Amino acid sequence: MKKSIVSTLALGSLLLFNNCKKDKNSIDANVKNCIDIPIIGFSLSDDVALGAQTAAQIDAETAEFPILDSASNPTPYRILYKIRNNILNSGKVKHKADFPWRLRIINKPDVQNAFCTPGGFIYVYTGIIKVLDNESQLAGVMGHEMGHADLRHSVSSIMNENGVGILLQIASGGNPGALTQMANQLRGLKNSRCHEIQADDASVFYLASTDYPCNSAAAFFRKIVASGAQTPPEILSTHPDPGNRVESIDKKAAENGCSTTKVPTNDEYALLKSSLRL
User: What local confidence, expressed as pLDDT, does residue 184 receive?
Assistant: First the structure.
């Protein structure tokens, strides 16, 4: 028998109250607060279901999203999996065990972008790999995108825009088309400025426990500022104001007291680029 909406809301409120007691070393305690509607009645498995639905749509659109086959491209996938695993094994990713953290490479050398759906489905374009210089910079970008999923930003944004009703419909199974509707909405969803800063903070928090400089997310934005590009990369349509972001990321690194000068001993970025013919 399905729970009533009232009991679901009550449980969600209780969980929200309990989550207010935050471990000082948790991701929640190390990011800035945004004014969001609390995520009520939508479980982590619902995040995964929503992400899987979105991923299925992306995977089916081969012209728009030409995904490289992992079996035919073992070297680039091995290196990206290594970067992903370094982040996951930092001990700081809150939902490491709850999400699949599946990774796909989209072969568009002219598109500088990366994103992560709810539930941890990661997409990295060859164009952003092409423009960056080392593993650390890519780790900073991937940590940022994984932070969006770990902090459940897309679900929060949909609730802020549509209210809790559509999420409760999905959670209860009462509207079979609602999952597809939300997956479609996610395709055009932009993160708020506050969520972007939170994801920047999350990247610093994750990388502080790795061999990468904890402010590596700032390196990408520095590169964009230095390039003076007339046409900003696609990733900046959802990640605005690179100059301000550099300052904010460096400030968070200083607050955390983490290293910004580490040099990973096993940087395979040249091999990554050559294996992709970039």
Answer: 76
Q: What does the alpha-carbon distance between residue 72 and residue 59 come to, in Å, rounded to a whole number?
A: 17
User: CA distances (Å), 221 to each of 70, 131, 239, 266, in order?
Assistant: 29, 11, 9, 24
Rounded to an integer, the average pLDDT of 170-185 is 73
Task: Look at residue 100 and tell me whether its pLDDT is greater than 60.
Answer: yes
Category of 167 on φ-ψ map: left (φ > 0), alpha (ψ -120 to 50) or beta: alpha
- HSE-CB at 104 with a 13 A cutoff on CA atoms is 21
For residues 199 and 114, give the distance between their C-alpha atoms in angstroms, rounded to a whole number: 13
What beta strand segments (E) does 86-128 contain?
102-106, 114-117, 121-125
The structure tokens 């930092």 sit at 90
- Tens digits of per-residue pLDDT, 71-94? 999 999 999 999 999 999 999 999
Pairing of strands 114-117, 102-106: unpaired
Structure tokens at 140: 């900073």
- The Cα-based distances of 22 to 18, 94, 123, 150 in angstroms read 9, 12, 30, 15
> Residue 171 above 70 pLDDT?
no
Taking all residues of the chain, what is their mean pLDDT, rounded to a whole number? Answer: 83
Indicate the domain borders of the chain.
Answer: 39-275
Whose CA is closest to 249, among 213, 211, 210, 209?
213
Q: Is 68 in contact with 105 (CB distance < 8 Å)?
A: yes
